Amino acid sequence: MTLQIHSRELARQLSLSRREFLRSASGLALGSALLRSAPLAFAAPPQSKRKVIVITFGGGARDQETFAPEGQENIPHLMKELIPQSSFFTQVVNRGILGHYVATASLATGAYETFNNFAAVSPESPTVFEYFRKELKRPASDAWVVAPSNGFNRIGESSNRAFGPGSGARVILPKHLLTAATSGAADYSHLLRDSYETPLYAPQLSGNTFELEQMENLLKLSVDDFKSHALTLSSADELSVYIVRRLMQQLAPSLLWVTLHDIDVAHAGAYSLYIEGIRRTDRLCHELWKLVQAEPEYAGKTTLLILPDFGRDADEDAGGNGFQHHRTGDALSRTTWLMAIGPGIREGVVFDRPLQSIDLVPTIGSMMGFTAAYSRGKPISELL
Residue 298 domain-assigned? Predict the structure, then answer.
């Protein structure tokens, strides 16, 4: 009990620090003081027309490299352009397993999944994509996941018997496509590294896997053009965003989940590459929001939700490895944040109250008009 109280207090202090960092740098207001009086930027679209894009700021980044004064130079787009337009939540706690696939699966189901992070399994609880499609009777083309790691290939749908095969999201693995297109040629090696934690792990790809032929037919993207453009990119996340752009332009799905993962290079122990990953992720989040504004199918009716899967270890924690890993399970590793931006979302407001990462799915359900019956989270009232 004492340990739990200490952890909650650390999480609270971390959220208060984030608030002060943001207020001093961006002039944000405290949400509890303005919630009743702050006007909406503009009205939310009807539920039937609303689109939602989720971006996971994947890999885990600490405040000292992001929101703290010494780290804000690494997230200029979030600090100067996105956060001032958003409702920002400073205390989002992940109480589950701190592995990237299992943590992302927990985000996508609204329940803390407990499977082995490196197992080739589907989530046990229904996913947000299955709720969305079943209750709203949406076609397969309306829910998609783009994930950089082949280990995420089963995240689109669960093993829950209330839903059947093919009832969730289609999953695009750009690395898998590029490997198939190039046979793993050396020129593309910088885009094909699959895991910095377990380099020998090779997931079993099966199920509803998106293949090269479908890329040509659905995304109107030839293999040659895909290969040529990939050579101009510096990271797997840039490749993912390139695919996301084609997906939005060709199919305009209403529910789109993008997992960014470059920051996870921290496991390799190179601090400079970790910082580079943070800066690139910041830039790509901004690029995706600009794309939303530029695409007629998305402009004026899209809510963008950005949040990490979890954090990383503190330098002073003897049980961890600082920026390199996320092994301790302490408050710094578990306490993250959430940014919401779009029509109907209050702008320039920061909220300190504690949330759980599993609150994401029922919140999306309330925005789009479906229930998340198996979720253990609660809708975030400030966004509804």
Answer: yes
Is the CB of residue 151 less than 8 Å from the CB of residue 118?
yes
Distance CA 136, CA 366 (A): 12
C-alpha torsion angle, residues 289, 108, 374, 326 (rounded to 10)? -120
Best CA proximity match to 179, nearest among 238, 239, 246: 239
Q: Could you tell me the CATH number of the domain that includes residue 214?
A: 3.40.720.10
- Residues 280, 262: Cα–Cα separation, whole Å: 8
Q: What is the per-residue pLDDT for 199?
A: 46
Please check whether residue 282 lies inside any domain of the structure. yes
Q: What is the pLDDT of residue 373?
A: 95
> What one-character-per-residue DSSP string does 161-192 give?
TTS-TT-S-EEE-HHHHHHHHHTT-GGGHHHH
Model confidence pLDDT, tens digit, residues 51-91? 999 999 876 788 888 988 899 999 999 999 999 999 999 99
Q: In total, how many domains does the chain have?
A: 1
In a domain, 41, yes or no: no
Q: How far apart are the first and last CA of the chain?
A: 34
Structural domain contains residue 76: yes
The helix/strand/coil state of 344 is coil
Range of the domain at 241: 2-32+49-383
